[in-house]
Amino acid sequence: MECNPDYILLQAYADGELDAMRSVEVETHLAGCPACRQALENLCACRTALREGLPRYAAPAHLAEKIRTAMPAAAPVRHARVVNYWPWAGWVSALAATLVVGFFIGLQRGQSGRLFDEAVASHTRSLMQSHLMDVVSTDQHTVKPWFEGKINFAPPVVDLSSAGFPLVGGRLDELNHQTVAALVYGRNKHFINLFVWPSTSGALSVGSAESAGYQLNSWTHGDLDFIAVSEIPPADLADFVHAYRAETE
């Protein structure tokens, strides 16, 4: 199999249309080709977004009657006839526009869903594997410089002890195949992981969410995206986000 991320076999493989021999060939190639693995992930993500995020609409009951009245009556002699499509062309155009908008909304939701799942997994992993912090400090002037030279952006680091969310450290992590800054704050014996990375052009849905029992809050400011994750109550996480944004925006 040639190395080409757009190779047609990937599409057939993603749809389960290959025979056993071809499937083995593709799987062998994928094992050693990151570009094709990424292309396959994109295909699967697009299919999931279409299946789960695209809205479904039922045609209005009177549409069939409009179409029937717009079509020419049957004639015994076959001859050319000009059909007026305008009575129902508007419906088709509107439906097509809705499908296009729905596709992109669904795709964005799928991307945000994966980011939220990865953020929760990283938060949980940091607690279980005792890798909560690479730099341990309550001093923002210690934590912020630690990131310099390790990433190509400057995460806003502030101490929120006065609001009940003391800074306890930070580390490097990974979301969506890119290195991100993880700022760690405390709250009543619990921790908040705040992930920060350069904005990915609308891939992140803004707002609050819940996943696997964890609370998330996401937003974008300037050229940076943010996701805060913790097991603390939603109101507490909302207070943290409000306090952080008040100090950094």
What does this structure look like?
The structure is a single chain. The protein is an alpha+beta fold. The chain is built from 7 helices and 7 strands; from the N terminus they run H-H-H-H-H-E-H-E-E-E-E-E-E-H. Strands 1-2-3-4-7-6-5 form a 7-stranded antiparallel sheet, sandwiched between helices. Strand 5 and strand 6 form a beta hairpin. Helix 4 runs antiparallel to helix 5. The longest helix is centred in the middle third of the chain and has 43 residues, at 86-128. Mean pLDDT is 77; it is low at 95-110.
Order of helices and strands: HHHHHEHEEEEEEH
Which parts are unreliable, with pLDDT below 50 for 5 consecutive residues or more? 95-110
Radius of gyration: 26 Å
Give the distance, in angstroms, between the N- and C-terminal Cα atoms: 51 Å
- Largest β-sheet summary: 7 strands, antiparallel
For the largest beta sheet, what order do the strands appear in spatially? 1-2-3-4-7-6-5
Multimeric organization: single chain
> What share of the residues lie within helices?
40-55%
Shape: extended
Average per-residue pLDDT, rounded, comes to: 77
User: Which class of secondary structure composition applies to the elements?
Assistant: alpha+beta
Count of discrete alpha- or pi-helical segments spanning 4 or more residues: 7
Strand content: 15-25%
State the total count of DSSP E strands: 7
